[in-house]
Design goal:
The structure holds two protein chains of two kinds. By secondary structure, chain A is α+β, with helices and mostly antiparallel strands. Chain A contains 15 helices and 28 strands. In chain A, a hairpin with a 3-residue loop joins strand 7 (141-142) and strand 8. In chain A, helix 13 packs across helix 14 (655-667). Chain B is α+β, with helices and mostly antiparallel strands. Chain B is built from eleven helices and twelve strands. Chain B has helices spanning 29-34, 70-75, 77-82, 84-92, 96-101, 104-109, 160-167, 184-187, 268-274, 281-292, 303-323, and strands at residues 5-8, 20-23, 42-45, 54-56, 62-65, 170-174, 180-183, 206-212, 221-227, 235-246, 249-258, 265-266. In chain B, helix 4 (84-92) runs antiparallel to helix 7 (160-167), helix 9 (268-274) packs antiparallel against helix 10 (281-292) and helix 10 packs antiparallel against helix 11 (303-323). The chains are: A alpha+beta, B alpha+beta. Chains A and B meet through helix 2 of A and helix 11 of B.
């Protein structure tokens, strides 16, 4: 598609790297040919707690090196203790890397790892999250820095006198990030400089962190991240594979490739914590909320405190004079949970939006009307005005498009053949954020412009969107912009996370391009740090509304999603083609959360039993029947020069609740522990 | 993975070295080798043996070569018209790509997908005899309610085998002791205290063909599979059935259950009870109850009893409906 002046932004430009990807020529981290490369295989702890006393390698196995804490070079401790690989005898979770076997071939490395003998002293472990755990505590803050607890008014008194109330507990299981491209690194030392081909969401961050681990300044570490096959938060920072590869390359003097097998993705790179959420809502008979309470329980590891911000979205969704949100955390002998697409918002909105549906049923009120009745004028907790908020418009326009009107609110009323049919709705919200970034633009002799920023394109279309933004800021057609990203030696960009990439990088690109034009020079660099830091952080959110129609088989309890529809208000949509893909992808991931995904815990073993994509189900093509997303034209000139809000994560926020609510409407059964599977519906179906 | 040798079998009497296993489609074996669960010294590739034909037998049945691919068998017009249950079962399994590789013989010999069996780092009496069965107290939501033992509650994962069990197929094998024939319902062993052996086959015995007997009423047959997502998932319960009804009465019936036992579970008790009875939902449910009376569910798999009851009644009722 040819972009014409003016206005590359807003055009449905196809992904610039699309032809390379579909023809197989786009290179991912592990695909760069290296002379004399060796292969590293990560040996993972078979016990959840204990001490590794010794490692005995089979001399007949063709290993080039076997690294473990007894022989690995010492590393500098950094903020993330997971990166202190092979530094200690202590075992903190089952699956923790305890050794790395390096060999001339992948097969030999794998075999040598399989026959490696680990001398381990196992200790008692504790792997179960429960709400009466004696070690529960309130963390100082929840990710990334929100207060752990907020209160206003008197929730207990309000609930005691509320004419209608609900008190429900929802549970979500451990969920695992599974980007199609696993975590992978090729490490090579050029003298004292380190070169990493690494799959991640933040090349400059990885360069800085890995540099720190090896005592190098960031500029001595060159991270190349041209193409990334998904991350979903699990690649937001350097992961152990990068350090292990660099360590092995140092010891062997050869380039070393470490690609995590799918099974290791379930323990080494982070996951979404299980949650238990208690929600109490009180309302007047007309649906006006008088009290909202959301208390969330989650787990973290012995190694590192990651506190999922499960109840944070509840702070701004609905008005109510009496409110409380709180988080409780417990350290277990389990892998460290980390960011997974919409950490906090995704599980938290399952709890809130299902509880709202339960309240609507108690009130005998349409669930959309209940939400509209409780629309706040300003941030309910701090009183900050919203830069823009079109939640009610999303609910109304979405209901219109989905065909909500005339819905019989009673459950278990529609049956066609063996199928019970129901519909559900839920709200969505995601914070609008930006982080400091720097971009550089050069006017080249051939009339084109080279725009450079160390951003990462996870397959989302970031490269394409930045090209469009630059074209408009330069007032040239998109064809005259050459974009360079995915390299830590380019101007420093923020992480591709928190749905903030386009805003953060686009801001810097816009600044650089405008400066180039106003200065008349042939090169300009723009750093947004000052502007970003001056921004108010409250009152900035994208909103949306999800609608789902499901059918539940009366014979088997099987759930199928006949229709999904999402209506969003997310600022200016920069590229409708890539935006739609982002929304739909998030919604499908939400379907997986509602119906399929579960890390199945074996408490006695201190491990999730399923650890591949045969045992850990995500939606297959056949699960996605009719699905669509649309958006309102939303103008917001307070958030960034493009007026755009992040769209990478809002699709998974609320969509699981819409499906769970639809299952109730179909069957009359409230499934409060995810995923909703046939065994939970069979009795009543 | 463990280093192994490879050779191609050129004749049926080629034999099989100690420590060797046959390789056909490889869709399950190769995975298990990568995982370190299967560690053969040698693979003997049987893909070049002349076992790829489906032929009609003199008594009106079909003889299916062991190397016939699942996708080809599912599409065979003779299978589709005379044994629709088999075609439906095949198409309910795996994915298009896997069905293009998987063979008739290999499908029967595929191993359980019990998560403990599939993970060499965990105890399992099937892959490491004597190491224990963590599934009994652990994750057994999709494991056996029938035919299991203290040592093992694995389920056989095949859809195809459930249809073959209902149809009364016969498995032809050849090996060091010469050819022999085994009823498909006798091919798989119950685990007892030796769960490491899945089947009655001796080392070196190769499945050469599967024979379907003439069964005219199987033209009215069906397979129904319940699963956790719409495709590309193993069954959590399935039913294969063929029904012969006259004047509202069951003249004959074939019924087999999948995903509930270490083998495809032919429901002989239910069949026996149904013959001569009215073809009604109540009778179908009562027959299922009779078959499932011996079920020994654990903490998280009792739902399979309701599931199999419902599936049995629904499938038989639909077949009965077709007669009217």
């Amino acid at each position: 598609m040819t972009a014409t002046m003016p206005g590359a932004v807003g055009a449905p430009l196809a992904r610039l790297e699309g032809p390379e990807k579909v023809s197989g020529t786009a290179r991912y981290a592990a695909e760069y040919p290296q002379d004399d490369v060796a292969y590293g295989w990560v040996v993972q702890s078979p016990v959840p707690c204990g001490r590794l006393d010794a490692v005995l390698a089979d001399p007949l196995a063709d290993a080039v090196a076997v690294l473990w804490h007894g022989n690995a070079p010492q590393l500098t401790a950094v903020e993330d203790p997971e990166l202190a690989v092979l530094q200690s005898a202590r075992i903190s979770y089952r699956g923790q890397p305890v050794a790395l076997v390096v060999a001339d071939t992948l097969e030999a490395a794998r075999r040598a790892a399989q026959v490696l003998q680990l001398d381990i002293t196992a200790e008692e472990h504790d792997a179960v999250l429960r709400t009466d755990h004696p070690d529960l505590y309130a963390p100082e803050t929840v990710n990334p820095g929100y207060p752990t607890e907020t209160t206003a008014g008197d929730v207990e008194a309000a609930l005691a006198t509320a004419p209608v109330s609900v008190d429900v507990t929802y549970r979500t299981p451990a969920l695992h990030n599974n980007p199609m491209e696993p975590h992978a690194t090729i490490a090579r030392w050029d003298g004292d400089d380190l070169v990493l081909h690494d799959s991640n969401q933040h090349p400059s961050g990885v360069a800085a962190t890995v540099g720190e681990v090896f005592g190098l300044p960031p500029e001595r570490v060159h991270v190349i991240t041209e193409h990334v096959g998904g991350g979903f938060g699990s690649k937001g920072t350097a992961r152990p594979n990068a350090v292990l590869a660099a360590l092995a390359a140092k010891v062997t003097g050869r380039p070393v490739k470490v690609v995590l097998p799918r099974q290791a993705m379930f323990s080494v790179v982070g996951h979404r914590t299980p949650t238990v959420q208690r929600l109490r809502l009180g309302a007047e008979a007309d649906g006006t909320l008088t009290a909202i309470e959301h208390v969330a329980y989650s787990q973290t590891s012995r190694l590192y405190e990651f506190a999922e911000q499960t109840a944070v979205t509840t702070r701004h969704m609905y008005a109510a004079p009496n409110r409380r949100t709180a988080h409780q955390l417990v350290r277990l002998d389990m892998p460290t949970p980390r960011w997974m697409r919409a950490p906090g918002e995704a599980p938290g909105m399952l709890g809130l939006e299902c509880a709202m549906d339960e309240l609507a049923a108690e009130l005998g009120m349409d669930p959309i009307e209940l939400r509209i009745r409780n629309e706040p004028a300003v941030e309910p907790e701090g009183g900050t005005p919203f830069t823009s908020r079109h939640y009610v418009e999303c609910l109304r326009a979405g209901a219109e498009r989905f065909g909500w009107s005339g819905r019989d609110p009673r459950p278990r009323q529609r049956r066609e053949g063996d199928w019970w049919i129901g519909t559900g709705v839920a709200g969505a919200s995601y914070p609008t954020m930006a982080q400091p970034s720097t971009a550089r633009v050069r006017a080249l002799d051939d009339g084109t412009f080279e725009v450079a920023i160390g951003a990462a394109d996870l397959g989302t279309g970031a490269r394409t969107i930045l090209t469009q933004i630059a074209a408009d800021a330069l007032e040239v057609p998109a064809e005259r912009v050459r974009i360079r990203i995915g390299d830590s030696t380019l101007p420093k960009a923020s992480v591709a996370g928190g749905s903030s990439g386009s805003a953060s990088w686009g801001w810097a690109v816009t600044g650089a391009c405008r400066e180039l034009r106003s200065s008349g020079q042939s090169e300009a660099t723009f750093d947004t740090t000052e502007q970003v830091q001056q921004q108010e952080t409250e009152g900035r959110h994208a909103f949306g509304a999800h609608f789902a129609e499901v059918r539940v088989d009366a014979v088997t309890g099987e759930v199928r999603v006949s229709r999904m529809f999402g209506m969003f208000a997310a600022g200016r949509i920069l590229n409708p083609r890539t935006a739609r893909s982002q929304f739909l992808g998030g919604m499908i991931m939400g379907m997986g959360m509602a119906l399929h995904e579960e890390g199945v815990l074996n408490p006695a073993m201190g491990a999730w039993v399923n650890h591949d994509l045969a045992g850990y189900h995500i939606p297959a093509h056949a699960d996605v029947e009719q699905i669509d997303a649309a958006w309102l034209d939303e103008t917001d000139d307070q958030i960034n020069p493009m007026g755009s809000k992040g769209i990478g994560e809002i699709g998974i926020v609320g969509s699981p609740a819409a499906i769970v609510n639809a299952v109730w409407h179909a069957t009359g059964v409230r499934v409060r522990d995810l995923p909703v599977r046939l065994d939970k519906l069979l009795g009543s179906a | 993975m463990k280093t192994f040798d490879y050779r191609t079998a050129t004749a049926l009497d080629d034999g099989l070295e100690p420590g060797a296993v046959f390789l056909a489609g490889g869709t399950n074996l190769v995975d298990l080798m990568k995982l370190g669960v299967a560690t053969p010294d040698m693979l003997v590739d049987v893909n070049r043996l002349p076992l790829g034909e489906v032929t009609e037998t003199p008594d009106g049945g079909l003889r299916i070569g062991a190397a016939v691919r699942n996708s080809d068998l599912a599409a065979d017009p003779r299978v589709r018209s005379a044994y629709p249950v088999l075609s439906q079962a095949l198409l309910a399994g795996a994915s298009g790509q896997l069905r293009n590789m998987a063979t008739t013989g290999g499908n029967l010999l595929q191993r359980t997908r019990c998560p403990y069996f599939m993970d060499a780092s965990k105890p399992c009496n099937k892959h490491a005899p004597g190491s224990g069965c963590p599934a009994r107290d652990g994750d057994h939501r999709n494991l056996a309610i029938l035919g299991g033992s203290q040592a093992c509650i694995a389920t056989h994962p095949s859809d195809m085998a459930v249809a073959l069990a209902a149809l009364g197929a016969v498995v032809h094998v050849d090996g060091p002791a010469g050819p022999r024939s085994i009823a498909v319902t006798d091919l798989h062993r119950l685990p007892g205290d030796t769960p490491e052996r899945d089947t009655v086959l001796e080392h070196g015995e190769l499945i050469t063909a599967v024979e379907l007997p003439a069964l005219p009423f199987a033209a009215r047959s069906a397979y129904r599979k319940a699963r956790d997502r719409a495709s590309y998932a193993f069954a959590v319960g399935s039913v294969a059935a063929a029904l012969d009804v006259a004047d509202g009465e069951v003249r004959d019936v074939r019924l087999a259950f999948g995903a509930v036992a270490p083998k495809p579970w032919r429901a002989f008790t239910a069949e026996q009870q149904l013959r001569g009875r009215p073809a009604t939902k109540e009778e179908f449910l009562a027959a299922a109850d009779a078959e499932l009376a011996g079920a020994q569910p654990l903490r998280d798999n009792a739902y399979k009893i309701s599931l199999l009851r419902n599936l049995t009644a629904a499938v038989l009722a639909r077949l009965a409906e077709e007669v009217r």
